[in-house]
Structure formats: C-alpha cells, structure tokens
Design goal:
Layout (H helix, E strand, L loop, with lengths): L13 E2 L3 E6 L5 E2 L9 H5 L6 E5 L9 E3 L10 E3 L2 H4 L4 E5 L9 H15 L3 E5 L3 H13 L2 E7 L4 H9 L3 E5 L2 H11 L5 E3 L12 H4 L3 H10 L7 E5 L4 H14 L7 E6 L4 H5 L26 H9 L5 E2 L2 H12 L11 H12 L8 E5 L8
Parallel strand pairs: 7-15, 8-9, 8-11, 9-10, 12-13, 12-15, 13-14
Antiparallel strand pairs: 1-5, 2-3, 2-4, 6-7
Helix pairs in contact: 3-4, 8-9, 9-11
GO molecular function: L-serine ammonia-lyase activity; threonine deaminase activity
Protein name: Pyridoxal-phosphate dependent enzyme
Pfam family, one: PALP
Length: 376
C-alpha cells in the first residue's frame, strides 16, 4: 500500500470549549489542560507511572478535544460480519481499521495529536515507530504543514522506510528500540517539537490528546450493531493506547463501567497475562518473542493497559506469530489482506468460541488494525 497525503497544508484547529482538563487513571487527580508526556506528575514522581484521560463538562455534546482539525478522512470504518468458517459461529464482527487513509487505526490518534501540535504552535512532530504509527503521523503532519521526525530501528521493513521517505518524514535509525526513546526525550525539550508517542520508562503511552481519537471506534461499533453492546472486543496490544481509547469510548456509550464490554488485550507473548496474575509488575521489563509480530512487540506495557483489562473484567490472552500467520493466510482466502498482528484478534475470538466461554447471545468484535504490506 502506498500512502498519499496532500501537499497543501490544512491548519485550522478549534479546541472543544468543554474540555475541562485531564484525570489520572491511577490516583484520579484532576489536572488542567496541558501536556503530560510522563503522565500524571504526582504518580510519576512516586514511581507509579500512569497516563491521563480527558475530562469534559457534564453538558458536553461532543467529547473530543478538538471540534475542528485537519483530517484525511479517518474513521467510520466498516463493521463486517466475520465468515463463520473463520471463528466457528455467527454473530462475530470485524472492525476494519485498515480502511483508514494510511491503512491502520493509528490515523485516529494522529489526527488529534497533530491538532494538539498545531494548537501549541509547534513546527515538528516526533514519534518512535518502525511501522504504522510513523506512517500515519508522517501523513497527517504533511497534511498540516508540519515537519515530522520518526525514530526507527535499523531492522525497519523496507516498505515502511520507503513510505516514510515518500511522505517527507525525516528518519533517524537506531540499533535498539529503547534507544529511540532517549533521543525522543532529548528532542522533545526543543521549542516547537511535539512528541506524539511514548518516550518514558516506565512507559506511559502516547499523547492523551491523540488517544481520545480512539474512543470513536467504540461509538461506531455501538451504532453499527444497532445500538447493541458486544460482549467482547479483542484488540491487538502493546502499550494500550487503542485499548484504553476503546474502553473510555464505551464508558461514554454506557455511562456505567459495569456495562462496558470486555476489552481484551491480545499480546504476542505472555505480557499482560503475567501482570494481571501478579507474576510481574506493569513497570517491569517483559522480554518475549515478537519477531513475526513487530507491530505489537516491545518489552514494556502500561498502567492504561492494566486498568482497561481490570475495569472491563477482560483478562488477557496471547497469540503467537505462527498462529497469527496461519490465520492471516486463511483470511486471505476470504479477501482480507492484513498484517499478521491485525488478525490476532480473530484468533482470540475463535478460541473463545471453541472453549465455550463466549456469550452465544451477544456479538463479539475483532479489531483488524492494519492492512497487509510485504513482509508484515
């Protein structure tokens, strides 16, 4: 897939006047509207890193940080019935996030991250990504007339490197993924530079302005199911940005936590499972094999991931690269050309059906996060 973004800048931004501040996911402290790259300052100081979530006035008709912002047509992606042969039953649906302009769910986040950079008057946005997040941010930055710098690893797939170059992004290559965060931490101190993705250790997550864009996935699913709540939404998972966004989107739909569907994090190795079981702390390094699933690899996760799994009563699961590849090939037979990590969600729902633990009377949804690219 070759991504195209307009060469002319669209820079008009209007902040939602009903955005009243942010709230820590851990200590629940209320904070003013500002940027929180290390999450809640108080929790960070005591070594309990936690991201924050936007808070709106009770009367708010729109619960997004910006009412006007540069867009490329992201959102309103299809919800398709999953072929029963793939999962073993009807009433399972596929949320086609590969429909987004650059081929992944990341566009929803990039739109609002770039809007925040524009509101601040920044000239450059930066991210650490060797995949979809970098492609997406580069496209949205170009559309808004901003420079974009992406810290990649030396092992980045050629298709991603080529797309970043076509989109005009500056790439900085590092031998190890974690070293990219060191560069970001330093670069983010420069005037006019906005960090769209995490660079903290322990990890916190991406820009809370950007994460707000993911809430719309939940609203769309609810509407597309005829104002019916699914029993579960399976989400390929690393540090929980989209996971958390979907959770808070369903909180807005239901207005009560107990009605929220299970938002299931699907890891390439036992990461969230070990944290939920108490074997690991969410701040611990957790190495594992993600060679076939680099989009959701990494040794770190976040409190927002744990919070979502706990609050939605979801638990967590693991899908290996080999399992994902087998499902990817099977889905090709049905016309779905997806990256391996995208189909981890389908494998998860198939397991739930086979185990007999799925609610047979309620729909389930698999998030298909990214389009297929050579070698991905």
């Amino acid at each position: 897939m070759t991504v195209q973004a307009p060469a002319t800048a669209a820079t008009a931004v209007t902040r939602n006047p009903d955005l009243s501040g942010f709230q820590c996911l851990k200590c629940e402290a209320l904070l003013p509207v500002d940027d929180y790259p290390s999450g809640c300052p108080a929790c960070w100081q005591r070594g309990a890193a936690s991201n924050v979530v936007a808070v709106y006035a009770d009367k708010a008709a729109v619960r997004l940080p910006y009412l006007q912002l540069p867009r490329l047509g992201e959102g309103n992606t299809r919800l398709l019935a999953c072929p029963p042969d793939l999962v073993g039953r009807d009433n399972v649906y596929l949320k086609c996030e590969f429909d987004n302009p650059t081929g992944s769910h990341k566009d929803r986040c990039s739109a609002f991250s770039v809007a925040r950079a524009l509101e601040r008057g920044d000239h450059t946005v930066i991210a650490a990504s060797s995949g979809n997040a970098g492609i997406s941010l580069a496209a949205y930055a170009r559309n808004a007339g901003l420079a974009c710098e992406i810290a990649v690893t030396d092992s980045i797939a050629p298709v991603y490197r080529d797309e970043l170059q076509r989109l005009g992004a500056t790439t900085l290559s590092f031998a190890e993924a974690r070293v990219r965060w060191d560069w970001m931490a330093e670069r983010a101190q420069d005037d006019g530079v906005y960090a769209a993705t995490n660079y903290c250790v322990p990890a916190v997550g991406s820009s809370p302005f950007g994460i707000e864009g993911y809430k719309l996935i939940a609203h769309e699913i609810y509407t597309q199911l005829g104002t019916t709540l699914p029993s579960a939404v399976a989400v390929p998972h690393c540090r929980g940005d989209v996971l958390s966004g979907i959770f808070f989107g369903f909180r807005e739909v239901t207005e009560e936590a107990q009605a929220v569907p299970q938002i299931l994090p699907v890891d390439p190795f036992a990461r969230t499972e070990r944290i939920l079981s108490g074997e690991l702390d969410y701040r611990d390094m957790c190495p594992g094999d993600s060679a076939l699933l680099p989009a959701v690899g990494g040794e770190t996760t976040t409190w927002q991931s744990v919070n979502t799994a706990q609050q939605s009563r979801a638990g967590a699961t693991t899908v290996s690269g080999d399992e994902a590849e087998a499902m990817r090939l099977k889905m090709l037979e049905f016309g779905f050309d997806l990256e391996r990590s995208a189909v981890m969600s389908v494998v998860t729902l198939k397991r739930l059906v086979e185990s007999g633990t799925a609610d047979a009377d309620r729909p389930m949804v698999a998030l298909l996060t990214g389009v297929g690219r050579p070698g991905i």
